[in-house]
Amino acid sequence: MTHATADDKLQLGGEVFSSRLITGTGGAPSLDILEAALVASGTEMTTVAMRRLNPRTTGSVLDLLRKLGIRPLPNTAGCYTAGEAVLTARLAREALETDWVKVEVVADERTLLPDTVELVDAAERLVDDGFVVLAYTNDDPVVARRLEQVGCAAVMPLGSPIGSGLGIRNPHNIRLITEQATVPVVLDAGIGTASDAALAMELGCDAVMLASAVTRAQEPALMAAAMRSAVDGGRLAYRAGRIPMRHYAEASSPTDGLAEIPAF
Amino acid sequence: MTHATADDKLQLGGEVFSSRLITGTGGAPSLDILEAALVASGTEMTTVAMRRLNPRTTGSVLDLLRKLGIRPLPNTAGCYTAGEAVLTARLAREALETDWVKVEVVADERTLLPDTVELVDAAERLVDDGFVVLAYTNDDPVVARRLEQVGCAAVMPLGSPIGSGLGIRNPHNIRLITEQATVPVVLDAGIGTASDAALAMELGCDAVMLASAVTRAQEPALMAAAMRSAVDGGRLAYRAGRIPMRHYAEASSPTDGLAEIPAF
Amino acid sequence: MTHATADDKLQLGGEVFSSRLITGTGGAPSLDILEAALVASGTEMTTVAMRRLNPRTTGSVLDLLRKLGIRPLPNTAGCYTAGEAVLTARLAREALETDWVKVEVVADERTLLPDTVELVDAAERLVDDGFVVLAYTNDDPVVARRLEQVGCAAVMPLGSPIGSGLGIRNPHNIRLITEQATVPVVLDAGIGTASDAALAMELGCDAVMLASAVTRAQEPALMAAAMRSAVDGGRLAYRAGRIPMRHYAEASSPTDGLAEIPAF
Amino acid sequence: MTHATADDKLQLGGEVFSSRLITGTGGAPSLDILEAALVASGTEMTTVAMRRLNPRTTGSVLDLLRKLGIRPLPNTAGCYTAGEAVLTARLAREALETDWVKVEVVADERTLLPDTVELVDAAERLVDDGFVVLAYTNDDPVVARRLEQVGCAAVMPLGSPIGSGLGIRNPHNIRLITEQATVPVVLDAGIGTASDAALAMELGCDAVMLASAVTRAQEPALMAAAMRSAVDGGRLAYRAGRIPMRHYAEASSPTDGLAEIPAF
């Protein structure tokens, strides 16, 4: 695997990553379990919610990331307006000394779907303010393009609602997004299992972001390893060029000139 | 990965395998490319068609397998009756000095779908004759159970027609098969890309068998590596216990007690 | 609708039907509700289970069918061997004075999936015995062809397990069956809602058979009307020749020569 | 059918419709064929593109609608900004003497996907200007709610890109939209065949809008009849309350107390 992926790094926001799996920390039952999962995932960047305080895990999440050498990516989870998101991003910049931010502006608690009008506004303001902006968005190719136009470093379309585990509900839209994008596309939200992550990569995404699928799995570290393999597998398959689909069968070898026994 | 999979070997026909990927050789453009793909796949067992002679590749396929330390698994591809399949298996046993056989009895050239009546007959006769029988079958749980009852060492349901690349057309049936099986289930035929292989494992299959998806890919060795990762990922996800699907979102962290900045 | 369908009758077993919807009676909460549903469905043929006695409804089901002028089609539900099915069919022939039979031979109670080996055997014997045989089978094109070869008047592949409401799990197989069939294909089992029935017809089936989807719906008569419309709609769509699928959009009108206002 | 649907009219913009199928005219090969299709569809409202001039059909489209007693619904197809859409709507109001408008603001010619930022802006301005606004939008529940909030009389989410025939790519989103909507939801764009239209209604849509699926079918009038039946069927199924999906089978009758022959 090392060999096949060594020349295939992810370039994002002017930096280079070996791992194409970005993780979140929410939902982990304990710091120990989170640590094991992060290590198993091979991730190099992990989001941290600036507006949340989970007494069980958040307290030392940043310490843990520092220990593991994983870059923290502050997000604006829990923000409902562009104004809130911009403020949260600025607080994060001061606190974490990073100008990277994953901007989320959600519309309601039931679906946690992005409010794309507020999102585009927030993204534009943050780019103007010097941030490296990764934008969590819906799967609308038009919104994705707009986010790119206002200067986002990456677009992060959802597969399905956050935490739903429904996978990629509309692969067609994700393909339309990756076809047109000139910045990295990170499939974010909705991943339930390994094949979802592989599919995301096969559709041309440059990376996958997930949290609950790992942290809430029955065995988080095992699922983290699963996601790592699946992201690698999907990426390799994308690069390898899959066979076309056929309505009928095709024998894997010519059947003309059948001989009873091969010549060996 | 090594760590996570070390205690999770495939037991099949009284033998133990570290790899859960079984490959075929048909469709490879050259022996060199086949060799690179086999190595990248990490496979430990590869089928060989006893009734075919592909002048480009078959001649030295067995030499190649010997060199790579990969176990050859003769198949009965191209047989349309139980009688032909039994005869072919016996010729293979003499020629390859193995009593393992993948039994295929197909119904027609257009679909290459198994003729399950002939198949069950052939399997039963081969078991009686001392063979270790792996049976390529349709995705009917009733036929799978019957094959198990006549003594097959593994059942190999198709995902879709051979070479079609259509993936797993009926995951529900594959699940019904794996739920009931007491011998290994190997998803065989129809795999098109990495996420298909991951899904097979998530459905509870014990291994995946494929040929065209790798040998006919634009870059066979890369796709072989993809399949290896995807099979690992799918297996790990199966063991890890995925999150349930939800209709609505679920925040990855509690949002009660939101604080502006995490305590760090 | 009458106009469009008047010249498109179903020919099956030497008879002609205006309705392409065959219904069952099982699961109806009362005879009155069953009657309303049968009328709303427009069906001309309804199965009757010979081996069942549902004290609430079966007693007078045959009276009801007689009153409504609906042809009873005895089935062999509950039979697990060819022998049982043949015996049941013969009892039905005497009791109902019809040589039509829907032959079912199931493998187990959990899935109610057909045992195709027993099924083919039963079908062959019943054809030899002068029956007009409609065979409930899995969705394997090879078995469908075999049933046709032994003389069945119709093949009835399942969409998914009986009563599951899972719809058509493998449209690809149903298409393979309808492409090759020279006798009517009736999609049987698994229909959950109207769009499932429409899809069956679009795949080239000649009719749809269902019971639970109507009798267990919250409002059986309304669902019966739904199924009638959906079967009509699906059949018409099949005949009308649908548009191809495209990856991108296509404007519904030329946009060259745009004018501000149409000439009217 | 009349019976079952008589009490189930569509209320939209303060008016009542018996038909839940809204059609377009684009793509029809001739006025005669268009007429036959419109009649077969049973539609009561048909869109007219104000910015297009198709020499073959548009000239007399309005005459045809007048003759058939079908309400014309001007749309703003071909507009790329809110300003263009508002202008086009006003021209249409003068020309057609209707204050109803289907507002479309598309982002590009390749996908014809709506630009939702411009769309919301246009919708708001048109509502303020006294229009009854039906808004063609993407399948984002948040945008749908926003359109409702600015006063749209109906939201018209797409199933897939215009003219693509890809059906409903994301049923989950359509369901989220219909669950929350307090104005009618009209599935617009992407319908390919009858089962797509039935599914739209089963998901809780109040009506279906389509053009190419009928006008470009091999037999437009037959497909129009198909769509009419499918919309009816889907609506009835929605009202009837479908059976739940089950993983395993459920016999349609109790099998306890099996008797050899029913009591008749």
From TrEMBL, chains A, B, C, D:
Organism: Yinghuangia aomiensis
Residues of the Thiazole synthase ThiG domain: 12-254
Pfam families associated with the record: ThiG (PF05690)
Taxon lineage: Bacteria, Bacillati, Actinomycetota, Actinomycetes, Kitasatosporales
Catalytic activity from the UniProt record: [ThiS sulfur-carrier protein]-C-terminal-Gly-aminoethanethioate + 2-iminoacetate + 1-deoxy-D-xylulose 5-phosphate = [ThiS sulfur-carrier protein]-C-terminal Gly-Gly + 2-[(2R,5Z)-2-carboxy-4-methylthiazol-5(2H)-ylidene]ethyl phosphate + 2 H2O + H(+)
Assigned keywords, A-Z: Cytoplasm, Schiff base, Thiamine biosynthesis, Transferase
Enzyme Commission number, as recorded: 2.8.1.10
Domain of life: Bacteria
Keyword DNA damage carried by entry: no
Enzyme class at the top of the EC tree: transferase
PANTHER family listed in its UniProt record: THIAZOLE SYNTHASE
Function (record text): Catalyzes the rearrangement of 1-deoxy-D-xylulose 5-phosphate (DXP) to produce the thiazole phosphate moiety of thiamine. Sulfur is provided by the thiocarboxylate moiety of the carrier protein ThiS. In vitro, sulfur can be provided by H(2)S.
Active site location: 102 (schiff-base intermediate with dxp)
InterPro entries from the UniProt entry: Aldolase_TIM (IPR013785), Thiazole_synthase_ThiG (IPR033983), ThiG (IPR008867)
Family: Belongs to the ThiG family.
Biochemical pathway: Cofactor biosynthesis; thiamine diphosphate biosynthesis
Cellular location(s): Cytoplasm
Protein name as annotated: Thiazole synthase
Spans traversing the lipid bilayer: none
Binding-site list for 1-deoxy-D-xylulose 5-phosphate: 163, 189-190, 211-212
